[in-house]
Amino acid sequence: MYIKLFLLSLLALSIADEIKKENNVLVLTKDNFEEIVKNKNVLVEFYAPWCGHCKALEPEYAKAATILNEEKSELLLAKVDATAETELAEQHGVRGYPTIKFFREGKVLEYNGGRTADDIIRWLKKKTGPPANDLTTAEAAKTFVDSGEVVVVGFFKDQESPEAKIFKNVAAEMDDFVFGITSESSVYSDLKASKDGVILFKKFDEGRNEYEGELSEDDLKKFLKSNSLPVVVEFSHETAQKIFGGDIKSHNLLFISKGSPDYESKIDVFRSVAKEFKSKVLFVTINTDDEDHERIMEFFGLKKDDAPTMRIIKLEEEMTKFKPLTTGITAEDIKGFVDGVLEGKIKQHLLSEDIPEGWDKEPVKVLVGKNFDEVAFDKSKNVLVEFYAPWCGHCKQLAPIYDELGEKYKDNANVVIAKMDATGNELEHTKINSFPTIKLYKKDTNEVVEYNGERTLEGISQFIETDGEYGKAAPDEEEDEEEEKDDEKAKRDEL
């Protein structure tokens, strides 16, 4: 078995030497792809040159490849330009960028790890090695604990006990952590473990957390997730997945300039309150000096001058946002805001632009959150509303047709043609998930009917004339997948 693996490793390295490399990452095409991934361990990133997420990943991906190369590891990292190698992309079901797949000796796994070099290497080694490293000496254990920001050690005198098996099962399932296991008394003593159990070691906050109570897989997973993030997490490309993919769905976001003179003092106050809400609310800082965070601020209707300020989001079936009643960042302000949201005393915050001057002077009326209900729910008229996004290509294509529609009905006292930028205005009663979305608010009843017919002057006109019957969307009708992907690509280009 070892001879076979050794020969495969030599073969992989010799073939890899002949393939073009960029920063130790193999560059794959349809001509060399099968040769490289066959019977080897290769992580392959399918990317697009224009993709912002791919550009952010590139240095970390190259760093991981370089580290593995220096270790003389048989693990290889490769990439495919999916916009040039369209056949390969289609063959492997690439639907977005980056798509990362692990080809492990003929089998294909979807990569679901983090986006840092350490995350990538940890995930790969977990998939190709034992779920937990066997720590047989105090020196090996100390090196292991020092090796990462967060590591987990299981202390079990009997590694075949039910508790040890639970630990090993969790270690095999959770790719975000590096696990070690030991039965050695010297390791117990050196790592200050007084009994069998699980300890999470980390290089921040309190430094270590000991699992208490009866061991179960679900409880151990919750323990690891809740203790592996700092009490206050700084938002970045690297931490985004852990923040939004975690079990805690309520996040208190502090928008603050890292360059402000009172930054450290405000973070200290923020951290002190965060400890009171551990496992209930995740406290996150967002640096307003970072240009990459401008779109996040726009999403919350914020400008740099608004910082420091807080917003809470709840990531449930639909995301809801909350705005504090005060502008201060004192401990009292922070605690009052979080308590107010958790207790339901602070209501959801909806974005709305100011009503523009002359909003009703043109054939197509301009709606915002502040005047939407007054216009759309006017029972004396049929009101057609297009919900659009400024970056949406399909919305731009529809614009001249929609203007024609406005002209056609401008003198009809029973019909109003209107539009609303749904990225800058939100409605409690209407959630928009794709662009453009066209809805008819019917006179007399205020019944709302969504249009799903052809986007032509004739088609939309017929929808209005038939009182919402022609081209209406079926209940719970699925969105057009290709169009949604086009919109996402346009949004990524904009980002």
Q: What does this protein structure show overall?
A:
The protein has about 500 residues and is an alpha/beta fold. The protein has four domains: about 110 residues, 3-Layer(aba) Sandwich (Glutaredoxin); about 90 residues, Glutaredoxin (3-Layer(aba) Sandwich), CATH 3.40.30; about 110 residues, 3-Layer(aba) Sandwich (Glutaredoxin), CATH 3.40.30.10; about 100 residues, Glutaredoxin. The protein is built from 17 helices and 21 strands. The N terminus and C terminus are likely disordered.
| Strands, count | 21
Look at the structure and give the CATH class of the largest domain.
Alpha Beta
Distance between the termini: 49 Å
Mean pLDDT: 88
Q: So how many helices?
A: 17
CA gyration radius, whole angstroms: 28 Å
CATH topology of the largest domain: Glutaredoxin
Question: What global shape is seen?
Answer: globular
Topology record:
Blueprint: H1 2-18, E1 21-22, E2 25-27, H2 33-37, E3 41-47, H3 52-70, E4 76-81, H4 86-91, E5 99-104, E6 107-110, H5 117-128, E7 132-134, H6 138-146, E8 150-155, H7 162-173, E9 178-182, H8 185-190, E10 197-202, E11 208-210, H9 217-227, E12 232-234, H10 237-244, E13 250-256, H11 263-274, E14 282-287, H12 294-299, E15 309-315, E16 319-322, H13 331-342, E17 364-367, H14 372-376, E18 382-388, H15 393-409, E19 415-421, E20 437-441, E21 448-450, H16 457-465, H17 481-494
Parallel strand pairs: 2-4, 3-4, 7-9, 8-9, 12-14, 13-14, 17-19, 18-19
Antiparallel strand pairs: 1-2, 3-5, 5-6, 8-10, 10-11, 13-15, 15-16, 18-20, 20-21
